[in-house]
Predict the 3D structure of the following.
Amino acid sequence: MMSSHLTWMIIRNNNAYLLKKRNIKKPFSTEPNNLNNLSSYRYSGLIHKKSVGVVAAPDNKGFTVVYKKSRSSYKPAKSVVKRTMKAGPRRSLYKLKRLLRANKYRTDLTKAALRRASAVLKSQKPLPIKKARAKKSD
Amino acid sequence: MSLSAARPLISIYNDKNEPLGTTVALPAVFKAPIRPDIVNFVHDNMAKNHRQPYSVNKDAGHQTSAESWGTGRAVARIPRVRGGGTHRSGQGAFGNMCRGGRMFAPTKPWRRWHRRININQKRYALVSAIAASGVPALVMSKGHLIQDIPELPLVVDDKVQEYSKTKQAVVFLRRIKAWADIQKVYKSRRFRAGKGKMRNRRRIQRRGPLVIYGQDQGLTKAFRNIPGVDLINVSKLNLLKLAPGGHVGRFVIWTQSAFSKLDELFGSWRKTSKLKKGYNLPMPKMANTDLTRLLKAEEIRSVLRAPIKQKRSVKKLNPLTNTRAMLRLNPYAAVLKRKAILTSLQSRRKRQELLAKKRGITLEPTAAEARARKLQEQRRAAIQKAKAEKAKKPKVEKEEKPTPGKEGKKAKTPAKGDKTPVKGAKAPGKGGKAPAKGGKAAAKEAKVLGKEAKAPAKEAKAPAKEAKAPAKEAKAPAKEAKAPAKEGKAPAEETKKVAEGSPKK
Protein backbone atom coordinates (compact mmCIF):
# COMPACT_ATOMS: atom_id res chain seq x y z
CA MET A 1 0.00 0.00 0.00
CA MET A 2 2.83 2.34 0.60
CA SER A 3 4.42 3.09 -2.68
CA SER A 4 8.16 3.24 -2.82
CA HIS A 5 8.00 6.91 -3.71
CA LEU A 6 6.10 7.78 -0.57
CA THR A 7 8.36 5.82 1.70
CA TRP A 8 11.36 7.35 0.05
CA MET A 9 10.09 10.83 0.72
CA ILE A 10 9.59 9.93 4.34
CA ILE A 11 12.90 8.23 4.76
CA ARG A 12 15.26 10.15 2.54
CA ASN A 13 16.62 12.48 5.12
CA ASN A 14 15.86 10.54 8.20
CA ASN A 15 16.60 6.89 8.79
CA ALA A 16 18.80 4.64 10.86
CA TYR A 17 21.06 3.74 7.98
CA LEU A 18 21.82 7.21 6.75
CA LEU A 19 25.46 8.12 6.87
CA LYS A 20 26.58 11.65 6.21
CA LYS A 21 30.18 12.65 6.09
CA ARG A 22 31.84 16.01 5.95
CA ASN A 23 32.33 17.58 2.54
CA ILE A 24 30.54 14.75 0.79
CA LYS A 25 27.35 15.85 -0.86
CA LYS A 26 25.59 12.56 -1.33
CA PRO A 27 24.99 10.62 1.83
CA PHE A 28 25.86 6.97 2.18
CA SER A 29 23.63 4.21 3.41
CA THR A 30 24.56 1.33 5.65
CA GLU A 31 21.55 -0.78 4.88
CA PRO A 32 22.23 -4.39 3.94
CA ASN A 33 20.72 -4.64 0.46
CA ASN A 34 22.20 -1.61 -1.11
CA LEU A 35 24.42 -2.28 -4.08
CA ASN A 36 26.63 0.73 -3.93
CA ASN A 37 25.96 1.94 -0.41
CA LEU A 38 24.54 5.23 -1.60
CA SER A 39 21.47 6.66 -0.02
CA SER A 40 19.31 7.11 -3.09
CA TYR A 41 15.91 6.12 -4.35
CA ARG A 42 17.14 3.68 -6.92
CA TYR A 43 19.66 1.85 -4.83
CA SER A 44 17.78 1.68 -1.57
CA GLY A 45 17.27 -1.87 -0.38
CA LEU A 46 14.35 -1.17 1.90
CA ILE A 47 11.74 0.75 0.00
CA HIS A 48 11.22 -1.27 -3.12
CA LYS A 49 9.32 -4.48 -3.50
CA LYS A 50 12.22 -5.95 -5.38
CA SER A 51 15.76 -5.45 -4.38
CA VAL A 52 19.12 -7.04 -4.95
CA GLY A 53 22.01 -7.44 -2.59
CA VAL A 54 25.44 -8.98 -3.13
CA VAL A 55 27.50 -10.17 -0.21
CA ALA A 56 30.56 -12.32 0.24
CA ALA A 57 29.59 -15.92 0.78
CA PRO A 58 30.03 -17.14 4.34
CA ASP A 59 33.03 -19.35 3.69
CA ASN A 60 34.58 -16.52 1.74
CA LYS A 61 34.50 -18.36 -1.52
CA GLY A 62 32.28 -16.79 -4.03
CA PHE A 63 29.41 -14.46 -3.34
CA THR A 64 25.78 -14.68 -2.34
CA VAL A 65 23.01 -12.91 -4.14
CA VAL A 66 20.15 -11.90 -1.92
CA TYR A 67 16.97 -10.85 -3.55
CA LYS A 68 13.45 -10.13 -2.40
CA LYS A 69 10.43 -12.02 -3.42
CA SER A 70 8.04 -9.42 -4.64
CA ARG A 71 4.96 -11.19 -3.34
CA SER A 72 5.78 -11.45 0.30
CA SER A 73 6.80 -7.88 0.96
CA TYR A 74 4.82 -7.88 4.20
CA LYS A 75 6.36 -11.04 5.51
CA PRO A 76 9.94 -10.14 6.19
CA ALA A 77 10.95 -13.67 7.15
CA LYS A 78 9.79 -15.13 3.88
CA SER A 79 10.59 -12.40 1.48
CA VAL A 80 14.32 -12.92 1.21
CA VAL A 81 15.95 -15.44 -1.10
CA LYS A 82 19.63 -16.21 -1.09
CA ARG A 83 21.61 -17.77 -3.85
CA THR A 84 25.25 -18.50 -3.45
CA MET A 85 27.47 -18.44 -6.49
CA LYS A 86 30.57 -20.45 -5.88
CA ALA A 87 31.82 -21.07 -9.37
CA GLY A 88 34.75 -19.10 -10.64
CA PRO A 89 34.38 -15.47 -11.56
CA ARG A 90 33.47 -15.80 -15.22
CA ARG A 91 30.70 -18.20 -14.52
CA SER A 92 29.19 -16.62 -11.46
CA LEU A 93 29.12 -13.20 -13.02
CA TYR A 94 27.35 -14.65 -15.98
CA LYS A 95 24.92 -16.42 -13.71
CA LEU A 96 24.21 -13.21 -11.84
CA LYS A 97 23.55 -11.36 -15.04
CA ARG A 98 21.30 -14.13 -16.23
CA LEU A 99 19.42 -14.20 -12.97
CA LEU A 100 18.58 -10.55 -13.18
CA ARG A 101 18.07 -10.16 -16.87
CA ALA A 102 16.07 -13.29 -17.54
CA ASN A 103 13.61 -12.50 -14.81
CA LYS A 104 13.59 -8.79 -15.62
CA TYR A 105 14.38 -8.30 -11.99
CA ARG A 106 15.47 -4.74 -11.41
CA THR A 107 17.43 -4.60 -14.62
CA ASP A 108 18.48 -1.10 -13.71
CA LEU A 109 20.65 -2.66 -11.06
CA THR A 110 22.46 -5.27 -13.14
CA LYS A 111 25.58 -3.22 -13.76
CA ALA A 112 25.87 -2.24 -10.14
CA ALA A 113 25.29 -5.83 -9.04
CA LEU A 114 27.97 -7.13 -11.38
CA ARG A 115 30.38 -4.52 -10.16
CA ARG A 116 29.79 -5.37 -6.58
CA ALA A 117 30.14 -9.07 -7.28
CA SER A 118 33.44 -8.49 -9.05
CA ALA A 119 34.66 -6.40 -6.18
CA VAL A 120 33.77 -9.18 -3.77
CA LEU A 121 35.53 -11.76 -5.89
CA LYS A 122 38.57 -9.58 -6.26
CA SER A 123 38.81 -9.18 -2.54
CA GLN A 124 38.85 -12.93 -2.18
CA LYS A 125 41.85 -13.41 -4.40
CA PRO A 126 45.15 -13.55 -2.59
CA LEU A 127 46.97 -10.26 -2.85
CA PRO A 128 50.02 -10.19 -5.11
CA ILE A 129 53.24 -10.71 -3.20
CA LYS A 130 55.22 -7.53 -3.02
CA LYS A 131 58.98 -7.51 -3.22
CA ALA A 132 60.33 -7.44 0.26
CA ARG A 133 57.22 -8.19 2.20
CA ALA A 134 54.91 -11.08 1.53
CA LYS A 135 51.39 -9.80 1.99
CA LYS A 136 48.75 -12.42 1.73
CA SER A 137 45.19 -11.99 2.80
CA ASP A 138 42.08 -14.08 2.61
CA MET B 1 -6.05 4.20 -2.46
CA SER B 2 -8.19 5.07 0.45
CA LEU B 3 -11.79 4.39 -0.27
CA SER B 4 -11.50 1.47 -2.56
CA ALA B 5 -8.29 -0.02 -1.31
CA ALA B 6 -8.23 -3.73 -0.87
CA ARG B 7 -7.78 -4.80 2.69
CA PRO B 8 -5.55 -7.83 2.82
CA LEU B 9 -5.97 -10.53 5.39
CA ILE B 10 -3.48 -10.67 8.19
CA SER B 11 -2.87 -14.02 9.77
CA ILE B 12 -2.70 -14.32 13.50
CA TYR B 13 0.19 -16.14 15.08
CA ASN B 14 0.12 -18.12 18.23
CA ASP B 15 2.77 -17.74 20.85
CA LYS B 16 4.86 -20.39 19.16
CA ASN B 17 5.13 -18.46 15.92
CA GLU B 18 2.77 -20.69 14.01
CA PRO B 19 -0.03 -19.14 12.03
CA LEU B 20 -3.24 -20.00 13.80
CA GLY B 21 -5.27 -20.20 10.68
CA THR B 22 -7.54 -17.36 11.65
CA THR B 23 -7.17 -14.17 9.74
CA VAL B 24 -8.32 -10.64 10.27
CA ALA B 25 -8.86 -8.06 7.62
CA LEU B 26 -6.41 -5.20 7.86
CA PRO B 27 -8.10 -2.34 9.70
CA ALA B 28 -8.54 0.76 7.58
CA VAL B 29 -6.20 2.68 9.85
CA PHE B 30 -3.27 1.07 8.19
CA LYS B 31 -4.17 2.66 4.91
CA ALA B 32 -4.38 6.13 6.34
CA PRO B 33 -2.08 8.75 4.88
CA ILE B 34 1.28 8.90 6.54
CA ARG B 35 2.22 12.45 7.36
CA PRO B 36 5.53 12.66 9.09
CA ASP B 37 5.21 16.43 9.28
CA ILE B 38 2.02 16.27 11.29
CA VAL B 39 3.44 13.53 13.47
CA ASN B 40 6.49 15.60 14.16
CA PHE B 41 4.53 18.71 15.03
CA VAL B 42 2.14 16.91 17.31
CA HIS B 43 4.90 14.95 18.93
CA ASP B 44 6.85 18.12 19.65
CA ASN B 45 3.92 19.67 21.36
CA MET B 46 2.82 16.59 23.17
CA ALA B 47 6.26 16.06 24.55
CA LYS B 48 6.09 19.45 26.20
CA ASN B 49 3.11 18.34 28.17
CA HIS B 50 4.84 16.26 30.72
CA ARG B 51 7.40 18.85 31.66
CA GLN B 52 7.83 20.04 35.21
CA PRO B 53 8.44 23.72 35.72
CA TYR B 54 11.87 25.02 36.64
CA SER B 55 12.88 28.45 37.71
CA VAL B 56 15.39 30.29 39.80
CA ASN B 57 14.59 31.56 43.23
CA LYS B 58 12.56 34.71 42.96
CA ASP B 59 14.75 36.51 45.45
CA ALA B 60 18.00 35.40 43.94
CA GLY B 61 20.35 38.36 43.54
CA HIS B 62 18.07 40.87 45.25
CA GLN B 63 18.77 40.07 48.83
CA THR B 64 21.01 43.09 49.22
CA SER B 65 20.38 46.73 49.87
CA ALA B 66 22.90 47.89 47.41
CA GLU B 67 22.82 51.37 45.96
CA SER B 68 24.81 53.06 43.28
CA TRP B 69 27.57 55.44 44.42
CA GLY B 70 26.72 57.75 41.59
CA THR B 71 29.29 59.67 39.61
CA GLY B 72 32.42 61.39 40.79
CA ARG B 73 33.90 58.47 42.66
CA ALA B 74 36.02 56.98 39.89
CA VAL B 75 34.02 53.77 39.81
CA ALA B 76 31.38 52.34 37.55
CA ARG B 77 27.86 53.37 38.35
CA ILE B 78 26.58 49.87 39.18
CA PRO B 79 24.80 49.60 42.54
CA ARG B 80 27.23 48.60 45.21
CA VAL B 81 26.76 46.85 48.51
CA ARG B 82 26.68 49.10 51.54
CA GLY B 83 28.50 48.97 54.71
CA GLY B 84 31.94 47.77 55.49
CA GLY B 85 33.99 45.24 57.26
CA THR B 86 33.57 42.49 54.81
CA HIS B 87 34.70 41.57 51.33
CA ARG B 88 31.20 42.02 50.12
CA SER B 89 31.02 45.70 50.85
CA GLY B 90 31.39 47.82 47.80
CA GLN B 91 30.94 44.97 45.40
CA GLY B 92 28.53 45.35 42.54
CA ALA B 93 25.08 43.93 42.99
CA PHE B 94 21.81 43.43 41.20
CA GLY B 95 23.08 43.40 37.65
CA ASN B 96 23.24 40.30 35.50
CA MET B 97 26.89 41.11 34.86
CA CYS B 98 27.73 41.32 38.55
CA ARG B 99 29.05 38.50 40.56
CA GLY B 100 26.28 37.55 42.92
CA GLY B 101 23.71 39.50 40.98
CA ARG B 102 20.52 38.13 39.60
CA MET B 103 20.51 36.56 36.13
CA PHE B 104 19.09 38.24 33.09
CA ALA B 105 15.36 37.51 32.86
CA PRO B 106 15.10 35.09 35.76
CA THR B 107 13.17 32.03 34.76
CA LYS B 108 9.64 32.01 36.12
CA PRO B 109 7.44 29.07 36.95
CA TRP B 110 4.50 30.55 35.15
CA ARG B 111 6.13 29.97 31.78
CA ARG B 112 3.74 28.32 29.41
CA TRP B 113 4.98 24.77 29.75
CA HIS B 114 2.18 22.84 28.15
CA ARG B 115 0.68 23.05 24.74
CA ARG B 116 -2.75 22.24 23.63
CA ILE B 117 -3.20 20.54 20.31
CA ASN B 118 -6.36 20.24 18.27
CA ILE B 119 -7.99 16.91 18.77
CA ASN B 120 -8.18 16.21 15.10
CA GLN B 121 -4.51 16.87 14.68
CA LYS B 122 -3.73 14.56 17.51
CA ARG B 123 -5.85 11.87 15.96
CA TYR B 124 -4.34 12.42 12.54
CA ALA B 125 -0.88 11.99 13.97
CA LEU B 126 -1.88 8.87 15.80
CA VAL B 127 -3.44 7.36 12.76
CA SER B 128 -0.38 8.14 10.65
CA ALA B 129 1.86 6.56 13.22
CA ILE B 130 -0.21 3.40 13.27
CA ALA B 131 -0.25 3.22 9.50
CA ALA B 132 3.50 3.64 9.39
CA SER B 133 3.99 0.79 11.82
CA GLY B 134 2.58 -1.51 9.17
CA VAL B 135 5.11 -0.66 6.50
CA PRO B 136 8.22 -2.84 6.73
CA ALA B 137 10.39 -0.28 4.99
CA LEU B 138 9.59 2.38 7.55
CA VAL B 139 10.00 0.11 10.54
CA MET B 140 13.33 -1.15 9.27
CA SER B 141 14.49 2.36 8.52
CA LYS B 142 13.79 3.31 12.06
CA GLY B 143 16.37 0.70 12.93
CA HIS B 144 14.25 -2.11 14.35
CA LEU B 145 15.55 -5.56 13.50
CA ILE B 146 12.54 -7.21 12.00
CA GLN B 147 14.16 -9.28 9.33
CA ASP B 148 12.85 -12.56 10.67
CA ILE B 149 9.40 -11.78 11.92
CA PRO B 150 6.64 -13.66 10.13
CA GLU B 151 4.43 -10.79 9.06
CA LEU B 152 3.83 -7.13 9.43
CA PRO B 153 1.62 -5.95 11.17
CA LEU B 154 2.39 -8.64 13.68
CA VAL B 155 -0.76 -9.92 15.38
CA VAL B 156 -0.53 -12.46 18.13
CA ASP B 157 -3.00 -14.67 19.88
CA ASP B 158 -4.66 -13.33 23.02
CA LYS B 159 -2.93 -15.92 25.15
CA VAL B 160 -0.04 -13.55 25.44
CA GLN B 161 -2.20 -11.26 27.53
CA GLU B 162 -2.30 -13.92 30.20
CA TYR B 163 1.43 -14.20 30.68
CA SER B 164 2.52 -13.56 34.21
CA LYS B 165 6.18 -14.51 34.19
CA THR B 166 8.86 -12.58 32.43
CA LYS B 167 10.39 -15.87 31.40
CA GLN B 168 7.33 -16.65 29.36
CA ALA B 169 7.49 -13.25 27.78
CA VAL B 170 11.12 -13.73 26.83
CA VAL B 171 10.44 -17.13 25.30
CA PHE B 172 7.59 -15.67 23.33
CA LEU B 173 9.67 -12.82 21.98
CA ARG B 174 12.38 -15.26 21.04
CA ARG B 175 9.95 -17.45 19.20
CA ILE B 176 8.50 -14.72 17.04
CA LYS B 177 12.00 -13.51 16.28
CA ALA B 178 11.57 -10.16 17.97
CA TRP B 179 14.43 -10.89 20.29
CA ALA B 180 16.99 -9.42 17.92
CA ASP B 181 15.42 -6.03 18.46
CA ILE B 182 15.77 -6.44 22.20
CA GLN B 183 19.35 -7.52 21.94
CA LYS B 184 19.92 -4.31 20.10
CA VAL B 185 18.52 -2.48 23.09
CA TYR B 186 20.93 -4.29 25.33
CA LYS B 187 23.82 -3.34 23.16
CA SER B 188 22.77 0.27 23.03
CA ARG B 189 22.92 0.80 26.78
CA ARG B 190 25.25 3.64 27.50
CA PHE B 191 25.75 6.73 29.59
CA ARG B 192 24.14 9.92 28.52
CA ALA B 193 26.44 12.57 27.21
CA GLY B 194 26.31 15.79 29.13
CA LYS B 195 25.10 17.12 32.46
CA GLY B 196 22.05 14.94 32.41
CA LYS B 197 24.25 12.34 34.06
CA MET B 198 24.24 14.24 37.29
CA ARG B 199 20.61 15.08 37.01
CA ASN B 200 19.24 11.61 37.44
CA ARG B 201 19.22 10.85 33.75
CA ARG B 202 22.36 8.84 33.74
CA ARG B 203 21.68 6.00 31.39
CA ILE B 204 20.06 5.81 28.01
CA GLN B 205 19.10 2.99 25.72
CA ARG B 206 17.25 2.35 22.51
CA ARG B 207 13.53 1.71 22.18
CA GLY B 208 12.45 -1.85 21.46
CA PRO B 209 9.12 -3.30 20.37
CA LEU B 210 5.80 -1.89 21.51
CA VAL B 211 3.18 -4.38 22.65
CA ILE B 212 -0.40 -3.21 22.26
CA TYR B 213 -2.92 -5.32 24.11
CA GLY B 214 -6.67 -5.40 24.51
CA GLN B 215 -6.91 -6.52 28.08
CA ASP B 216 -4.18 -6.80 30.64
CA GLN B 217 -4.34 -10.15 32.34
CA GLY B 218 -0.83 -10.08 33.66
CA LEU B 219 0.87 -9.10 30.44
CA THR B 220 2.22 -5.81 31.74
CA LYS B 221 3.94 -7.44 34.67
CA ALA B 222 5.47 -10.07 32.46
CA PHE B 223 6.89 -7.72 29.88
CA ARG B 224 7.79 -4.66 31.85
CA ASN B 225 11.17 -5.83 33.01
CA ILE B 226 12.44 -6.56 29.52
CA PRO B 227 14.51 -3.58 28.42
CA GLY B 228 13.12 -1.57 25.56
CA VAL B 229 9.64 -3.08 25.60
CA ASP B 230 6.68 -0.77 26.09
CA LEU B 231 3.11 -1.77 26.81
CA ILE B 232 -0.05 0.11 25.86
CA ASN B 233 -3.71 -0.62 25.99
CA VAL B 234 -5.47 -0.16 22.69
CA SER B 235 -7.95 2.32 24.08
CA LYS B 236 -5.19 4.58 25.28
CA LEU B 237 -2.85 4.79 22.35
CA ASN B 238 -0.04 7.21 22.87
CA LEU B 239 1.74 9.01 20.06
CA LEU B 240 4.82 9.41 22.17
CA LYS B 241 5.10 5.66 22.22
CA LEU B 242 4.00 5.00 18.66
CA ALA B 243 6.35 7.51 17.11
CA PRO B 244 9.17 7.98 19.57
CA GLY B 245 11.31 10.95 18.76
CA GLY B 246 8.69 12.26 16.39
CA HIS B 247 9.69 9.68 13.79
CA VAL B 248 7.21 7.17 12.48
CA GLY B 249 7.75 3.47 12.22
CA ARG B 250 7.97 1.80 15.58
CA PHE B 251 7.91 -1.97 15.69
CA VAL B 252 4.50 -2.93 17.13
CA ILE B 253 3.23 -6.30 18.30
CA TRP B 254 -0.57 -6.41 18.46
CA THR B 255 -2.69 -8.89 20.32
CA GLN B 256 -5.71 -10.18 18.51
CA SER B 257 -8.27 -8.32 20.58
CA ALA B 258 -6.33 -5.10 20.26
CA PHE B 259 -6.12 -5.46 16.52
CA SER B 260 -9.82 -6.09 16.11
CA LYS B 261 -10.63 -3.06 18.16
CA LEU B 262 -8.86 -0.73 15.77
CA ASP B 263 -11.74 -0.70 13.34
CA GLU B 264 -14.15 0.37 16.02
CA LEU B 265 -11.77 2.96 17.29
CA PHE B 266 -10.99 4.68 14.05
CA GLY B 267 -13.62 3.57 11.64
CA SER B 268 -13.03 3.23 7.98
CA TRP B 269 -13.78 5.85 5.41
CA ARG B 270 -17.14 4.32 4.82
CA LYS B 271 -18.15 4.19 8.43
CA THR B 272 -17.43 6.65 11.18
CA SER B 273 -15.73 5.46 14.28
CA LYS B 274 -17.90 4.00 16.98
CA LEU B 275 -15.79 5.03 19.89
CA LYS B 276 -14.77 8.49 18.78
CA LYS B 277 -17.82 10.58 18.19
CA GLY B 278 -18.17 11.60 14.60
CA TYR B 279 -14.60 10.81 13.75
CA ASN B 280 -13.57 9.47 10.41
CA LEU B 281 -10.17 8.70 9.01
CA PRO B 282 -8.36 11.54 7.29
CA MET B 283 -8.58 11.89 3.55
CA PRO B 284 -5.33 11.53 1.69
CA LYS B 285 -4.19 14.20 -0.73
CA MET B 286 -3.11 11.56 -3.19
CA ALA B 287 -5.04 8.34 -3.36
CA ASN B 288 -2.45 6.56 -5.45
CA THR B 289 1.08 7.44 -4.52
CA ASP B 290 2.89 5.18 -6.92
CA LEU B 291 4.53 7.73 -9.15
CA THR B 292 6.00 5.31 -11.63
CA ARG B 293 2.65 3.78 -12.37
CA LEU B 294 0.99 7.14 -12.64
CA LEU B 295 3.49 8.38 -15.12
CA LYS B 296 2.94 5.38 -17.32
CA ALA B 297 -0.83 5.25 -16.96
CA GLU B 298 -2.84 5.50 -20.11
CA GLU B 299 -5.40 7.80 -18.56
CA ILE B 300 -2.80 10.38 -17.87
CA ARG B 301 -0.66 9.92 -20.92
CA SER B 302 -3.58 10.22 -23.30
CA VAL B 303 -4.35 13.67 -22.05
CA LEU B 304 -0.85 15.06 -22.15
CA ARG B 305 0.52 16.91 -25.11
CA ALA B 306 3.61 15.63 -26.84
CA PRO B 307 6.81 16.38 -24.98
CA ILE B 308 8.89 19.22 -26.30
CA LYS B 309 12.36 17.81 -26.62
CA GLN B 310 14.97 20.41 -26.10
CA LYS B 311 18.02 19.87 -28.14
CA ARG B 312 20.72 19.67 -25.57
CA SER B 313 24.07 21.07 -26.37
CA VAL B 314 26.60 18.31 -26.65
CA LYS B 315 30.00 18.93 -25.30
CA LYS B 316 32.47 19.39 -28.09
CA LEU B 317 35.30 16.92 -27.97
CA ASN B 318 38.55 17.81 -29.59
CA PRO B 319 39.26 15.29 -32.37
CA LEU B 320 42.96 15.85 -32.10
CA THR B 321 43.03 14.53 -28.60
CA ASN B 322 39.92 12.36 -28.49
CA THR B 323 40.18 9.41 -30.85
CA ARG B 324 36.49 8.66 -30.90
CA ALA B 325 35.62 12.15 -31.92
CA MET B 326 38.20 11.85 -34.66
CA LEU B 327 36.74 8.62 -35.91
CA ARG B 328 33.32 10.14 -36.04
CA LEU B 329 34.60 12.81 -38.36
CA ASN B 330 37.03 10.77 -40.36
CA PRO B 331 36.74 7.00 -40.14
CA TYR B 332 39.81 6.54 -42.25
CA ALA B 333 41.84 8.02 -39.45
CA ALA B 334 41.78 4.63 -37.77
CA VAL B 335 43.56 3.08 -40.69
CA LEU B 336 46.13 5.83 -40.81
CA LYS B 337 46.77 5.59 -37.13
CA ARG B 338 47.13 1.89 -37.19
CA LYS B 339 49.48 2.11 -40.11
CA ALA B 340 51.52 4.69 -38.31
CA ILE B 341 51.79 2.58 -35.20
CA LEU B 342 52.70 -0.55 -37.10
CA THR B 343 55.29 1.16 -39.23
CA SER B 344 56.88 2.74 -36.23
CA LEU B 345 57.02 -0.65 -34.54
CA GLN B 346 58.53 -2.22 -37.60
CA SER B 347 61.14 0.44 -38.10
CA ARG B 348 62.06 0.22 -34.49
CA ARG B 349 62.42 -3.50 -34.84
CA LYS B 350 64.58 -3.12 -37.90
CA ARG B 351 66.87 -0.76 -36.12
CA GLN B 352 67.18 -3.15 -33.27
CA GLU B 353 67.98 -5.98 -35.60
CA LEU B 354 70.60 -3.92 -37.37
CA LEU B 355 72.23 -3.01 -34.14
CA ALA B 356 72.05 -6.57 -32.97
CA LYS B 357 73.68 -7.73 -36.12
CA LYS B 358 76.46 -5.24 -35.68
CA ARG B 359 76.97 -6.27 -32.15
CA GLY B 360 76.53 -9.90 -32.95
CA ILE B 361 73.71 -10.43 -30.46
CA THR B 362 70.68 -12.46 -31.25
CA LEU B 363 67.55 -10.64 -30.39
CA GLU B 364 64.61 -12.09 -28.59
CA PRO B 365 61.72 -12.67 -30.91
CA THR B 366 58.98 -10.08 -30.73
CA ALA B 367 55.84 -10.94 -28.89
CA ALA B 368 53.97 -11.70 -32.05
CA GLU B 369 56.67 -14.00 -33.31
CA ALA B 370 56.91 -15.72 -30.01
CA ARG B 371 53.20 -16.28 -29.93
CA ALA B 372 53.17 -17.69 -33.44
CA ARG B 373 56.00 -20.02 -32.71
CA LYS B 374 54.38 -21.25 -29.57
CA LEU B 375 51.15 -21.89 -31.38
CA GLN B 376 52.91 -23.86 -34.05
CA GLU B 377 54.58 -26.06 -31.52
CA GLN B 378 51.36 -26.65 -29.66
CA ARG B 379 49.60 -27.68 -32.76
CA ARG B 380 52.42 -29.92 -33.76
CA ALA B 381 52.31 -31.59 -30.40
CA ALA B 382 48.57 -32.01 -30.60
CA ILE B 383 48.80 -33.55 -34.01
CA GLN B 384 51.48 -35.96 -32.94
CA LYS B 385 49.35 -36.98 -30.05
CA ALA B 386 46.31 -37.53 -32.18
CA LYS B 387 48.31 -39.55 -34.60
CA ALA B 388 49.69 -41.68 -31.85
CA GLU B 389 46.22 -42.43 -30.61
CA LYS B 390 44.95 -43.34 -33.99
CA ALA B 391 47.95 -45.53 -34.56
CA LYS B 392 46.63 -47.70 -31.79
CA LYS B 393 43.36 -48.44 -33.49
CA PRO B 394 44.25 -49.78 -36.86
CA LYS B 395 42.15 -52.95 -36.68
CA VAL B 396 38.89 -51.29 -35.94
CA GLU B 397 39.42 -48.97 -38.84
CA LYS B 398 40.30 -51.72 -41.26
CA GLU B 399 36.72 -52.96 -41.26
CA GLU B 400 35.63 -49.76 -42.91
CA LYS B 401 35.27 -49.81 -46.62
CA PRO B 402 36.62 -47.99 -49.63
CA THR B 403 34.40 -44.97 -49.09
CA PRO B 404 36.54 -43.86 -46.24
CA GLY B 405 39.36 -44.79 -48.52
CA LYS B 406 38.22 -42.28 -51.08
CA GLU B 407 37.93 -39.73 -48.39
CA GLY B 408 41.35 -40.68 -47.36
CA LYS B 409 42.61 -40.11 -50.85
CA LYS B 410 40.79 -36.90 -51.09
CA ALA B 411 42.25 -35.87 -47.86
CA LYS B 412 45.73 -36.54 -49.04
CA THR B 413 45.62 -34.49 -52.14
CA PRO B 414 44.13 -31.48 -50.54
CA ALA B 415 46.87 -31.91 -48.04
CA LYS B 416 49.16 -30.15 -50.40
CA GLY B 417 46.63 -27.65 -51.45
CA ASP B 418 45.79 -26.95 -47.87
CA LYS B 419 49.26 -26.12 -46.86
CA THR B 420 49.07 -22.54 -47.89
CA PRO B 421 45.86 -21.51 -46.25
CA VAL B 422 46.81 -23.31 -43.09
CA LYS B 423 50.29 -21.95 -42.97
CA GLY B 424 49.13 -18.49 -43.59
CA ALA B 425 46.57 -18.66 -40.84
CA LYS B 426 48.47 -19.32 -37.71
CA ALA B 427 46.02 -17.74 -35.36
CA PRO B 428 44.30 -20.50 -33.42
CA GLY B 429 40.78 -19.73 -34.43
CA LYS B 430 41.60 -19.50 -38.03
CA GLY B 431 43.72 -22.60 -37.91
CA GLY B 432 40.70 -24.63 -37.09
CA LYS B 433 38.48 -23.15 -39.70
CA ALA B 434 40.79 -22.81 -42.65
CA PRO B 435 41.47 -26.48 -43.01
CA ALA B 436 37.80 -27.11 -42.58
CA LYS B 437 36.99 -24.82 -45.40
CA GLY B 438 39.99 -25.97 -47.25
CA GLY B 439 38.86 -29.50 -46.64
CA LYS B 440 35.42 -29.04 -48.05
CA ALA B 441 36.45 -26.94 -50.95
CA ALA B 442 39.48 -28.97 -51.57
CA ALA B 443 37.47 -32.14 -51.29
CA LYS B 444 35.81 -31.20 -54.49
CA GLU B 445 39.07 -30.25 -56.04
CA ALA B 446 40.44 -33.44 -54.69
CA LYS B 447 38.16 -35.49 -56.78
CA VAL B 448 39.45 -33.77 -59.83
CA LEU B 449 43.01 -33.67 -58.68
CA GLY B 450 42.68 -37.04 -57.19
CA LYS B 451 41.87 -38.56 -60.49
CA GLU B 452 44.83 -36.94 -62.04
CA ALA B 453 47.05 -37.81 -59.19
CA LYS B 454 45.69 -41.27 -59.11
CA ALA B 455 47.23 -42.22 -62.35
CA PRO B 456 50.88 -41.76 -61.48
CA ALA B 457 51.15 -41.84 -57.76
CA LYS B 458 48.42 -44.14 -56.86
CA GLU B 459 49.18 -47.05 -59.03
CA ALA B 460 51.93 -47.88 -56.70
CA LYS B 461 50.12 -46.94 -53.64
CA ALA B 462 46.68 -48.00 -54.75
CA PRO B 463 46.55 -51.53 -53.41
CA ALA B 464 48.50 -50.48 -50.45
CA LYS B 465 46.23 -47.54 -49.96
CA GLU B 466 43.06 -49.46 -50.33
CA ALA B 467 44.24 -51.94 -47.87
CA LYS B 468 45.26 -49.24 -45.65
CA ALA B 469 42.45 -46.94 -46.62
CA PRO B 470 40.54 -47.80 -43.52
CA ALA B 471 43.77 -47.56 -41.69
CA LYS B 472 44.46 -44.35 -43.52
CA GLU B 473 44.87 -42.25 -40.52
CA ALA B 474 47.62 -44.33 -39.17
CA LYS B 475 49.84 -45.45 -41.99
CA ALA B 476 49.11 -43.48 -45.09
CA PRO B 477 49.88 -40.18 -43.53
CA ALA B 478 52.85 -41.80 -42.00
CA LYS B 479 54.17 -42.33 -45.49
CA GLU B 480 53.21 -38.94 -46.61
CA ALA B 481 54.99 -37.62 -43.67
CA LYS B 482 58.31 -38.34 -45.16
CA ALA B 483 57.59 -36.81 -48.49
CA PRO B 484 56.11 -33.36 -47.90
CA ALA B 485 56.73 -31.19 -44.94
CA LYS B 486 55.26 -32.16 -41.68
CA GLU B 487 52.80 -29.40 -41.88
CA GLY B 488 51.22 -31.25 -44.71
CA LYS B 489 50.12 -33.89 -42.30
CA ALA B 490 48.62 -31.48 -39.96
CA PRO B 491 46.06 -30.14 -42.37
CA ALA B 492 45.58 -33.61 -43.73
CA GLU B 493 44.68 -34.92 -40.35
CA GLU B 494 42.62 -31.98 -39.59
CA THR B 495 40.83 -31.96 -42.87
CA LYS B 496 40.01 -35.60 -42.49
CA LYS B 497 38.74 -35.12 -39.06
CA VAL B 498 36.89 -32.03 -40.00
CA ALA B 499 35.63 -33.48 -43.25
CA GLU B 500 34.23 -36.38 -41.34
CA GLY B 501 33.07 -34.15 -38.60
CA SER B 502 31.38 -31.60 -40.77
CA PRO B 503 28.97 -33.95 -42.52
CA LYS B 504 28.00 -35.18 -39.13
CA LYS B 505 27.31 -31.64 -38.15
